Amino acid sequence: MKLTNTHIEKLYKFTKKHYVEYYDVQTELVDHLANDIESICTENPRLTFEQARDTSFKKFGVFGFMNVVEKKQSQMTKKYFKIIFKFAKEWFQLPKIVLTILLFTGFYQLQNTSNAYTVYVTVFGFVFIAQVILTIINARTLKKEFNLTQKKWLFKNIINVQGLIQTAFISIYSFQYFFPNNAKEFLVMADFRKAFSAFFITFIVIFGYITLIVIPKKAEELLAETYPEYKLV
C-alpha cells in the first residue's frame, strides 16, 4: 500500500488524538508510522490502513507516544541550553571579554559598600522578574499564533516559554544557594567568596541578556535551522 495525502492527514489527526500537540513531533511520528505501515501492508496486503496503523502503534508500548515526546522535549531543551552557553562563551572572548571584566570588577568593588547586598538582590530580581514577564507575554503570543496556524512547535515553545521558566528557576535556586542570606553576612565574606559572588552576578546579567534579548532576536533564525519546513509555514 502506498499511502496517500488523505492517509497522512489521518495520521496527523491520530498522533494529535494521542496527546502529541507539537507539529514537529507529530511530523516525525507520522513519517515513522507511514514507513512502518507501508512495510506492514507489504507483508500482509489484506490489512486495512487502520489495522496496519494500529499494529504499528502497538510497537510503541503501553505508554504510546509519551516516551517519544519526552525524549524529543529533553533533546530540544538540551539544544536550548547549548545555544545559551554558546552565546555566553562569546562574552569571554574579545571584544566582549573587556565588558565582562568591567562588570566583574564593578560588582567585586561594590561588595565593599554597605548597600552591596541590596544592589545584588535588585539586579537578580530585575532579571528574574523580566524573565517571568516575558514568559507570560510569549505564552499569550504563542496561543494567538496557534489559533491562526493550528500548529505548535516544540522548540519554539522551549525558546519562548519553557526555557525562560527553567532558566529563571535555576537562577533563583543558585542565588539562594550561593549567596549569603543577609547584608551583614555579605559584607564579611572572604575574598574568594566575594570573587565568586561577583563572577556569579556577572554571569546572571549576561545570562539574562542572552535569554531576554539575544535569543528572542535570533528565534526565527534558530527555528529555521532546526525545522527547514518552518520557513514554509
Tell me what you see in this structure.
This protein is an all-alpha fold. It has 2 domains: about 5-65; about 75-230. It is built from 9 helices and no strands. Helix 2 crosses helix 3 (about 50-60), helix 5 (about 95-110) packs antiparallel against helix 9 (about 190-225) and helix 6 (about 115-150) packs parallel to helix 9 (about 190-225). The radius of gyration is 24 Å and the shape is elongated. Keywords: Membrane, Transmembrane, Transmembrane helix.
Structure summarized in a few sentences:
The protein has 233 residues and is mainly alpha-helical. The chain is 79% helix and 0% strand.
Into how many domains do the coordinates divide?
Answer: 2
Order of helices and strands: HHHHHHHHH
Beta strand % = under 5%
Rg over CA atoms? 24 Å
Note the total helix count. Answer: 9
Structural class, judged by helices and strands?
Answer: mainly alpha
Q: Main β-sheet, in a few words?
A: none
Integer average pLDDT: 87
Low-confidence stretches: none
Based on CA inertia axes, which overall geometry fits? elongated
DSSP strand tally: 0
Question: What share of residues is helical?
Answer: over 70%
Distance between the termini: 29 Å
Keywords: Membrane, Transmembrane, Transmembrane helix
Transmembrane segments: 91-111, 117-137, 158-175, 195-215
